[in-house]
């Protein structure tokens, strides 16, 4: 495949454009999509770029179709992806459950909007529950929560590689702010950075004749017996647990010597880092922890943090969706939880700093 | 009767025969014709057979053809996605009336309208068989099902969906649309072959609905099963070609 990005370059663009370029650099062959704000421009840029690079696009009738046609693309052995948000993410969960069962490496970018229902087209972190655990199954999927445009680019490439390497559906979880704002980043060709591109291969329509090194594929997701299903699901769970240490990513700052650790993910983690740095400078012993993979969650790393401090402040633009993951990870340990939950609203570092200082004064 | 009519198609998977459908079910007949056509067009190795959920899911290992089970109603987009990504493959989407006309109707309508180069083969037996015989979009007026125990009331629940008529109305000039029946196998084979040829040639969307039997849920004996198929269903569902090359049309 022709390289979409010839040489490393610094650019200034919106997050949606970054995802389109990231997919191009990741050698994505085809996108299937349906309009929904705030992800539309992923399609807009892809449809402009794709023909110039021999890639394809199909606009579908809804997100069910976008998800299932993406599965079709994957079955044909192509690096296929879709992008959506909000109610579209709900519809997408049905095809994702098929991908989970059949280990199909579909890739999706989610630009979270306000919820529930139609809500706002602007921003939230309210699709954490859905993206990490939607579907009628065991939520065996990979979810990368990005915080910057550079990460949107890096993790879009990583998502395709993780999906094809490990064969689990993989999400890039952004949000409306990341989707729409402009920011500088460096675009590069992943091979030039030594990134090993996981090969894609067809599940159906392989080369060759039956009986001569090729057997007809029979792929199923329905089982007659409980035991048959149990065996398949347990095998997937074992695979997932085995690869978890290779997939899990997080950022931990100053947690070893902290009285309080701020936990945040995605774009909110930028405000949290800024708050942590300022509070540190002012003498507050504050740490910062950010899961990059929300699924699998960095359970071990967070439990380790809990050994040096037991106070956590979870900050998110949702009402406790990240906090639920945090509490689950810390289950059984002595931990005190505080929260800034602002569903559908942006959160500034000042807000976090004010909150921490106020709580500290109360203590005094 | 020639040898080809009495032997199993080459593309059938012998290890999975006898098949899993109920005695008297129409699916086996439809899949026999499909297998014969796949053999005659010599496309076994580049065909991809997608089956819906419902009774059609039982066909997942019916053929020695690359096959994939999908979700209820979602076979059309899966096959569309495959063929869009790799147009050299011949995509066959196999489903029932519920999958095609109810839960997956938006996919059927839009794939037809986009003129996706796939073959949608839909079995109409006027009910949801796998789930125990509920009303389907194709249930006849007055017909008793598990969800219309006093008979289908068209004022309450509408009239039987006329699928090929709808698809013919919204599809491109290069589409192929027909309705066959398992009571006329030679005609059914002609329709399925023309549909497949249309897709193999990359001309356009192809759609065949097949009137088929479901004695298990109709609760009919052999004679009444045949009567329901060949008399009652035919009153509503006209057998013939709805869209084809003008020189080929057959009523």
What can you see in these coordinates?
The complex is a heterodimer of chains A (364) and B (251). Chain A has 364 residues and is of the alpha/beta class. Chain A has 2 domains: 9-193, Thiamin diphosphate (ThDP)-binding fold, Pyr/PP domains (Rossmann fold), CATH 3.40.50.970; 250-362, Rossmann fold. Chain A is built from 12 helices and 15 strands. Chain A has helices at residues 15-25, 40-49, 63-75, 86-102, 128-133, 149-166, 176-180, 226-247, 268-281, 299-308, 321-329, 349-363, and strands at 9-14, 30-33, 56-59, 80-84, 107-112, 142-145, 170-175, 182-187, 218-219, 250-253, 260-263, 286-291, 293-295, 311-316, 336-341. Chain A starts with 8 loop residues before the first strand and ends with a helix. Chain B is globular, with a radius of gyration of 17 Å. The two termini of chain B are 25 Å apart. Chain A binds chain B through residues 29-30, 32, 56, 58, 60-62, 64-65, 68-78, 80, 94-95, 98, 202-206, 208-210, 214, 216-222, and chain B through 13, 44-46, 48, 53, 57, 60-61, 63-71, 74, 77-86, 88-89, 106-107, 109-110.
Layout of helices and strands:
The complex is a heterodimer of chains A (364) and B (251).
Chain A: E1 9-14, H1 15-25, E2 30-33, H2 40-49, E3 56-59, H3 63-75, E4 80-84, H4 86-102, E5 107-112, H5 128-133, E6 142-145, H6 149-166, E7 170-175, H7 176-180, E8 182-187, E9 218-219, H8 226-247, E10 250-253, E11 260-263, H9 268-281, E12 286-291, E13 293-295, H10 299-308, E14 311-316, H11 321-329, E15 336-341, H12 349-363
Parallel strand pairs in A: 2-3, 2-4, 4-5, 5-7, 6-7, 11-12, 11-14, 14-15
Antiparallel strand pairs in A: 1-8, 6-13, 10-12
Helix pairs in contact in A: 1-2, 1-6, 3-4, 9-12
Chain B: H1 3-6, H2 27-41, E1 47-51, E2 66-69, H3 75-85, E3 90-96, H4 97-103, H5 105-114, E4 119-124, E5 127-128, E6 134-135, H6 154-157, H7 163-170, E7 176-181, H8 185-200, E8 206-211, H9 215-218, H10 222-236, E9 240-243
Parallel strand pairs in B: 1-2, 1-3, 3-4, 4-8, 7-8
Antiparallel strand pairs in B: 5-6, 7-9
Helix pairs in contact in B: 2-8, 4-5
């Amino acid at each position: 495949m022709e390289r979409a990005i010839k040489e490393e370059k610094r650019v200034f663009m919106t997050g949606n454009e970054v995802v389109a370029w990231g997919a191009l650099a990741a050698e994505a062959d085809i996108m299937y999509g349906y309009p929904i704000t705030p992800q539309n421009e992923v399609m807009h840029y892809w449809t402009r770029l794709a023909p110039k690079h021999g890639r394809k696009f199909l606009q579908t009738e809804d997100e069910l179709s976008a998800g299932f046609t993406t599965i079709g693309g994957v079955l044909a052995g192509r690096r296929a992806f879709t992008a959506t948000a909000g109610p579209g993410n709900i519809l997408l969960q049905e095809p994702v459950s098929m991908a989970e069962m059949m280990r199909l490496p579909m890739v999706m970018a989610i630009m979270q909007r306000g919820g529930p229902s139609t809500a706002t087209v602007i921003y939230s972190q309210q699709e954490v529950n859905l993206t990490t655990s939607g579907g009628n199954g065991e939520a065996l999927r990979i979810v990368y929560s990005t915080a910057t445009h550079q990460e949107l680019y890096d993790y879009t490439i990583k998502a395709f590689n993780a999906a094809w390497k490990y064969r689990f559906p993989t999400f890039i979880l952004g949000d409306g702010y990341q989707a729409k704002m402009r920011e500088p980043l460096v675009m590069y060709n992943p091979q030039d950075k030594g990134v090993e591109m996981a090969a894609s291969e067809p599940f159906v329509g392989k080369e060759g004749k039956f009986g001569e090194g090729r057997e007809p594929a029979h792929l199923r997701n329905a089982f007659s017996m409980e035991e048959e299903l149990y065996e398949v699901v347990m095998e997937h769970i074992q695979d997932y647990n085995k690869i978890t240490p290779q997939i899990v990513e997080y950022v931990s700052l100053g947690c070893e010597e902290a009285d309080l650790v701020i936990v945040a993910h995605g774009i909110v983690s930028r405000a949290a880092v800024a708050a942590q740095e300022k509070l540190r400078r002012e003498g507050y012993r504050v740490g910062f922890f950010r899961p990059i993979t929300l699924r699998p969650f960095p359970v071990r790393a967070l439990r380790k943090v809990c050994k040096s401090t037991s106070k956590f402040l979870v900050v998110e633009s949702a009402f406790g969706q990240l906090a639920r993951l945090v509490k689950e990870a810390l289950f059984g340990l002595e931990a005190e939880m505080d929260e800034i939950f602002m569903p559908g609203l942006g959160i500034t570092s000042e807000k976090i700093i004010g909150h921490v200082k106020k709580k500290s004064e109360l203590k005094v | 009767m020639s040898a080809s009519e009495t032997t199993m198609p080459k593309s059938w998977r012998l290890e999975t025969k006898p098949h899993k459908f109920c005695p008297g079910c129409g699916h086996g007949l439809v899949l026999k014709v499909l297998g014969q056509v796949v053999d005659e067009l010599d496309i076994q190795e580049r065909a991809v057979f997608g089956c819906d959920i419902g009774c059609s899911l039982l066909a997942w290992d019916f053929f020695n053809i690359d096959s994939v089970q999908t979700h209820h109603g979602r076979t059309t987009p899966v096959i569309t996605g495959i063929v869009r990504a790799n147009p050299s493959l011949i995509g066959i989407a196999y489903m029932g009336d519920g999958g095609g006309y109810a839960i997956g109707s938006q996919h059927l309508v839009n794939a037809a309208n986009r003129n996706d180069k796939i073959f949608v083969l839909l079995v109409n037996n006027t009910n949801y068989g796998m789930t125990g015989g509920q009303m389907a979009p194709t249930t006849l007026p007055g017909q008793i099902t598990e969800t219309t125990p006093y008979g289908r009331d068209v004022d309450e629940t509408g009239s039987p969906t006329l699928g090929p008529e709808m698809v013919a109305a919204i599809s491109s000039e290069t589409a192929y649309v027909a309705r066959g029946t398992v009571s006329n196998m030679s005609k059914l084979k002609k329709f399925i072959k023309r549909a497949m040829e249309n897709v193999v040639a990359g001309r356009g969307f192809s759609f065949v609905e097949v009137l088929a039997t479901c004695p298990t849920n109709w609760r009919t004996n052999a004679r009444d099963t045949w009567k329901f198929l060949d008399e009652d269903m035919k009153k509503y569902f006209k057998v013939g070609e709805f869209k084809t090359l003008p020189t080929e049309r057959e009523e």
